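A common beginner's mistake is to predict each chain separately and then try to dock the pieces by hand. The better habit, illustrated here, is to supply every component at once so that their relative placement is modeled jointly.
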Amino acid sequence: MSNDPIYSAFAEDEEMAELVEMFVEEMPDRISSLQDAWESSARNDLQNIAHQLKGSSAGYGFAAVGRSAADLEDALKDMERELASVKAEFDALLNLCSRVSA
Amino acid sequence: MVHADRKPVLLLVDDQPAIHRLLAVKLRNEELEFLTAFTGEEALELAKEQQPSLILLDLTMPGMSGFEVLKALKENTDTMEIPVIIVSGSTDSRHKVRAFELGAMDYVCKPFDVPELRARIQSAIKLHRLMKMLEQRAQIDGLTGLWNRAYFDKRLEIELNSRRRTNRPLALVICDLDHFKLLNDNYGHPAGDTVLQGFASLLNHELRSSDVACRYGGEEFALILPETTPDEAIRACDRIRLAIDAKSWKNYEGLSATASFGLAHSDDLPVETAEEWIEAADSALYEAKRGGRNQVHAYGHGLAAGGALEIDEPPTEQAA
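With all components supplied together, the output reads:
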């Protein structure tokens, strides 16, 4: 997985600059709640955070994060799947979140 | 109250601050005022107090879900008319159908396209304003501009319900222009219309803004006076009675108009139904007519003002 920074599609948009910055600053909190939920196998929490990221990321110009969050949410909704089996989706989202930059 | 000159107020309900910030910036050129709520409970309270023009409502929130909030909004008479647009991360068509079944006006999926969301917001606000206007027009009497009979029936029920809860005093007056048919015959229908309009404007002038003046039919008017003592109600009726009696009608030389008043007050009325209230006021009006017109009768007390009485004397039964 790459570790290159990801920049907002609205990086050049002046009215968005400050907002994007705040969104990026809050990312470490989101990442740690994702990790906490994963480590404590809190499937519902995990699904909620993914749902929120799906809804907000694209609005801040991070469409890839939004898509990845949607993949994780969909995988978690499938109750046939064990939590362990969505590890790939979880890792992908975590990787994207950690690369988000202002 | 609907303030026509106030900017439309949008209540945004979402548990994510990131969504609030984004919309505040993206919608800042929209001539809107913003209210924000982060939980369903907070949203219900704000909706009731602030009467926003539109609510944008998220579905997935901790605590009350968006569906529960929507249901509660639509079940409360104070908030049921406020349009709601669901803004949700769910694209599941069952969620969309459920939202519309519960009374949502529109459904927008997150992540949303900002120009589309703006257009949907403006369209919802416009539709809501037109609905309000139509609703109000349907409740107003065209000739006098007073509330009409349909509104009176609805409002009397509301006032009686609130009285059952609070036991606050209430007065109902039915008044009728005297010899109106004769006036129409002698001076013509345009004169009759002028008198009806003149009487309506006296009512507006003499009553408080919390009172409700309605054209009940023909030359009959109904006044709902909340939180009014019998004495205050009699004084209000007598002010109107004296004013219409004293009014001169330009273009109609020799024309004079008077009115008779029948008052029912909660102090004298153990009854609860609207029909019984109207009957009581009507029977007092009948007594006022029979007693010689241009007077005020109170149900259970007889002549209260006008006729042979001065306003400051206590009510008596003598002239019934």
